[in-house]
From TrEMBL:
The keyword Transferase belongs to this UniProt entry's keyword annotation: yes
GO biological process: DNA repair; methylation
Domain Methylated-DNA-[protein]-cysteine S-methyltransferase DNA binding intervals: 4-83
Source organism (scientific name): Candidatus Iainarchaeum sp
Assigned EC number: 2.1.1.63
Membership in a protein family: Belongs to the MGMT family.
Protein name: methylated-DNA--[protein]-cysteine S-methyltransferase
InterPro entries for the chain: MethylDNA_cys_MeTrfase_DNA-bd, MethylDNA_cys_MeTrfase_DNAb, WH-like_DNA-bd_sf
SUPFAM superfamilies registered for this protein in UniProt: Methylated DNA-protein cysteine methyltransferase, C-terminal domain
Pfam families (alphabetical): DNA_binding_1
Keywords: DNA damage, DNA repair, Methyltransferase, Transferase
DNA sequence: CCTGGGGCAGCCG
DNA sequence: ACGGCTGCCCCAG
């Protein structure tokens, strides 16, 4: 029985390269729409840093958000996947957003 | 831009 | 089990 964190990590693993998701979306996909904050916690507590791509998780509206290993690193990782970040936001966020389910 | 309030899992003590 | 604190947050003002 996976804990909340496990569920979150599992969901994050499903995000394909070149796409991004948000804390809010993850919370919704995990079944707790208001647990977006706990999602952020799960990411920082993520045991496998690059393995589980928490760098593909941004804040709502496409804002870059934070990163335990430094936001700089996060931006670089995203850039290497073809995702550009300008002015603290993901360019073309709406199009690059990975949707888990169509409710 | 900044502030305050809300809401939630995890980790102490 | 219980209360208090923390955090890669969100939203309204």
């Amino acid at each position: 029985m996976p804990s909340f964190n496990q569920k979150i990590w599992r969901l994050i693993d499903k995000i394909p390269a070149g796409k991004v998701s948000t804390y809010k979306e993850l919370a919704r996909a995990a079944g707790s729409p208001n647990a977006f904050r706990a999602v952020g916690n799960a990411c920082s507590a993520n045991p496998n840093a690059p393995k589980t791509p928490c760098h593909r998780v941004v804040s709502s509206g496409g804002k870059i958000g934070g990163y335990a290993h430094g936001v700089e690193r996060k931006i670089r990782l995203l850039a290497s996947e073809g995702i550009r970040v300008a002015d603290g936001k993901v360019t073309g966020f709406e199009e690059r957003l990975f949707r888990y389910r169509t409710l």
